Each structure stands twice: as structure tokens, then as C-alpha cells.
Amino acid sequence: MENSQVSDKETISLVIKTPNQFHGDQLIEGVRVDWTVKDLKCHLSKVYPTNP
Q1: What top-level branch of life does the organism fall under (predicted)?
Q2: What is the C-alpha separation between 48 and 6, in angstroms, rounded?
Q3: Cα–Cα dist 34/47, whole Å
Q4: Checking phi first, is residue 31 left (phi over 0); if not, alpha (psi -120 to 50) or beta?
Q5: Side-chain half-sphere of 48: how many Cα atoms within 13 Å?
Q6: What pLDDT digit, counting tens, does each position of 6-43 carry?
């Protein structure tokens, strides 16, 4: 079954690579596939150790 529409509840996990490894790479789970870059940045500011 092929579906060209993405479910608004579908999520993915992202690995945020850190260049200096001070905090190590971060696995960010629950990222919705319909988020904009702004949505992702807002989420990262809440869950990332140094609040980028």
C-alpha cells in the first residue's frame, strides 16, 4: 500500500552531531515529520543540553 500523504503523527529520531564532543552526540526522539525548521529549533531549545 503506497501513501503519498505523510501522517501528521509520524515521528522520527535525529542524531545531532556535536563538533567538539563536549556533550557528545545527542539522540532527539519524537521529531514530527511535518515540523518546520522553526519547530525543530524550538524543540531543540527545550531538550538540548546547551539550549542552542
Answers
A1: Eukaryota
A2: 26
A3: 19
A4: beta
A5: 18
A6: 566 899 999 988 887 777 888 989 999 999 999 999 98
User: What DSSP state is assigned to residue 9?
Assistant: T
Structure-block grid coordinates of residue 45: 531549545
Cell of 22: 563536549
Query: What amino acid occupies position 11?
Result: T
The helix/strand/coil state of 48 is: coil
Q: How confident is the model at residue 4 (pLDDT cuts 50, 70, 90)?
A: low
Taking residue 34's Cβ as centre, other Cβ atoms within 10 Å add up to 11
3-state percent breakdown (helix, strand, coil) of the chain, nearest 5: 20, 25, 55
